[in-house]
Amino acid sequence: MEFEAAFKRLEEILEKMQTENPSLDESIRLYEEADKLIQLSSKNLAKAEKKIETIMKNRDSGLELDHNQQPILTNFEA
Questions:
Q1: 64 within some domain
Q2: How many separate domains does the chain show?
Q3: pTM score, two decimals?
Q4: Distance from the CA of 46 to the CA of which of 16, 52, 75, 76 falls in 20 to 30 A?
């Protein structure tokens, strides 16, 4: 599932939880689905960050690789 589709589904789940007052069982099911979507989205964002990092370093001829020949990433969080 693509990031945008997962994000849209997360918005739908949030809307349903806030407006429809689902049963406990339905709430748990929705929570589990949302958790899986969040994990998937996090992985997709990490992959995108890695690709962007590689592109930027290749452009600057500054690509550094670790012992597994994977790009060394910079943490962009402040």
A1: no
A2: 1
A3: 0.67
A4: 16
Residue 51 lies in a domain: yes
3-state secondary structure of 78: coil
Residue 36 domain flag? yes
Average pLDDT, rounded, for the chain: 86
Q: Which of 5-9, 39-43, 58-62 has the lowest mean pLDDT?
A: 58-62
**Between the CA atoms of 47, 50, 52 and 55, what dihedral angle is there, to the nearest 10 degrees?**
-130
Q: Is residue 73 part of a domain?
A: no
Domain carrying residue 39: 3-59
For residues 3 and 45, is the Cβ–Cβ distance under 8 A?
A: yes
Q: Which residues are within 8 A (CB) of 33 and not within 5 positions of it... i.e. 6 or more apart?
A: 9, 13
- Average pLDDT on 24-36 reads 96
Q: Which residues of 57-78 are buried (b: 16+ CB within 10 A; e: fewer)?
A: beeeeeeeeeeeeebeeeeeee
